[in-house]
Design a protein that fits this description.
The structure holds two protein chains of two kinds. By secondary structure, chain A is an alpha+beta fold. Chain A is built from six helices and five strands, in the order ββαβββααααα. Chain B is built from eleven helices and 14 strands. In chain B, a hairpin with a 5-residue loop joins strand 12 and strand 13. The chains are: A alpha+beta, B alpha+beta.
């Protein structure tokens, strides 16, 4: 069986491994690195529960081979917290009750993080468009939108200088 | 779901990719954005022995106007089309199309080259490219050839590309004055394939009559189609609601949809008619200000 050496930075830490080409990125993250915060929902490129940031872009990690991401940087939900402090997006989901069962939440938050990096002050419509690839079957999305608005506010308040220059790809 | 085993080859250049495709013949598949290929591999609908990853090949991701054409590299991602000021200002029909492909996460990886080369009649760009009379540039062992879009879609999931050819560029004639286009898609929910969708492109003459018309349809035939009778009915005429209704009816008659989870055939034909009418109206209003 062919195995391919890959090198990936996940949540700031460098990992080297030999993987079968057919190993999906989500399985590498969950089964090899034991980072089980990234969920597998539909497994058919529909639900977005497996969303991670690959070189800053939110993608469905069930629809990327781990070998494709060789040399890249991955951010998963485990990488959001800093020094015991929740990321503003995590805090927003907590404060605004942006989840019920929580299954879609990691993917939803990763999409929100990418959105706010590009657009620090999104309108409700821009938020709803950005999360169109992340399905939630519990909340009806209302509190998810509020959670992202909370995070946007918080991030603008705590980093007013950076907010204006954040963005780009 | 786990795809079947395969060998992975990462190509650093077009020459290398083509040599790999030649070496493995029909056993190899090109991996572009992977947003259709990987799901098909997970379902084991596709079991290629070799994957040739073209994502690292430089020079295939440009969007530029040159010599009276718009050239879009095969590796241009949908997100880049959506956000390109050039596309939004000069080719809004392409922005219309890109922004309804699947969902934003898929569009971060999915490429326009893959959308066409996959040959799926449910994909969105084919109809738009048919309406725009695009050309597809293919590179193979013998060099480059240019394929008119009308010759490109051969059958369901089958295009004119040979197994050892790579779609490198899509060329679209630069929009003449008084021209406009629009893509209208009806989908059950965000991210789904179209129940039916229509692309319309109109060029008006100085008197305001229709000088040229292009209409392409999505997911209503075994392959993407151009509604020729509808186009012919428009040319030389003064645009009007009645004329557009006639053309939309002719477009609907050109369809042969299948009954499935997205609805019965008759319903899809009606949706194709309505989408054609809406696309024509939107194209006209853009042509009148261009």
């Amino acid at each position: 069986m062919e195995r391919v050496p890959i090198q990936l930075t996940v949540n700031g830490q460098l990992y080297q491994a030999e993987v079968e080409p057919r190993m999906l990125l989500v399985h590498f993250i969950r089964d090899v690195l034991n980072l089980t915060g990234t969920h597998i929902g539909c497994d058919t490129t529909s639900c977005g529960a497996c969303t991670v940031l690959w070189d800053g872009r939110p993608v469905k990690s069930c629809t990327v081979f781990a070998v494709q991401a060789d040399g890249g940087e991955i951010l998963t939900v485990e990488g959001l917290e800093r020094d015991g402090q929740l990321h503003p997006v995590q805090e927003g989901f907590w404060e605004e009750h942006g989840l019920q069962c929580g299954f879609c939440t990691p993917g939803m938050m990763m999409t929100a993080v990418a959105l706010l990096q590009e657009n620090p002050d999104p309108s409700e419509e821009e938020i709803r468009k950005a999360i169109a690839g992340n399905l939630c079957r519990c909340t009806g999305y209302v509190n998810i939108v509020k959670a992202i608005q909370y995070a946007a506010r918080k991030m603008r308040e705590t980093a007013p200088a950076a907010a204006g220059i954040a963005g780009g790809e | 779901m786990i795809p079947g085993p395969f060998s992975y080859r990462k190509a650093a250049s077009l020459e290398e990719a083509i040599a790999l495709l030649q070496q493995y013949g029909g056993e190899a598949k090109v991996l572009s954005g992977g947003q259709s290929l990987i799901p098909m591999m997970k379902f084991r609908l596709a079991e290629p022995a070799v994957i040739v990853d073209i994502n690292r090949i430089p020079g295939l991701d440009a969007i530029e106007e040159r010599n009276g054409i718009l050239a879009i590299g095969g590796l241009v991602r949908e997100v880049a089309l959506e956000r390109s000021p050039l596309i939004r200002q000069r080719y809004p029909i392409i922005a219309d199309t890109a922004e309804v492909v699947a969902d934003p996460l898929v569009r971060n990886l999915a490429t326009i080259g893959g959308n066409l080369a996959h040959g799926d009649p449910a994909n969105d760009h084919p109809a738009t490219m048919l309406a725009l009379r695009a050309e597809v540039v293919a590179r193979g062992p013998g060099g480059e050839r240019v394929i008119p879009i009308d010759d490109f879609f051969v059958d369901t999931f089958t295009t004119a590309l040979a197994p050892d050819e790579i779609l490198t560029e899509i060329r679209i004639p630069a929009p003449p004055p008084r021209s406009g286009g629009a893509y209208m898609k009806f989908e059950r929910k965000v991210g789904d394939y179209a129940v039916a969708a229509a692309a319309a492109f109109l060029v008006l003459d100085e008197a305001g009559k229709i000088a040229r018309a292009g209409i392409g349809l999505t997911n209503v035939y075994y392959k993407p189609i151009r509604a020729e009778a509808a186009e012919n009915a428009l040319v030389g005429q003064v645009p009007s609601d009645g004329l557009f209704r006639t053309a939309a009816e002719l477009a609907a008659q050109a369809t042969d949809p299948t009954t499935d989870l997205r609805g019965p055939a008759e319903y899809k034909r009606a949706v194709a008619r309505t989408m054609t009418l809406r696309a024509l109206k939107a194209a006209l209003s853009r042509a009148q200000v261009a």
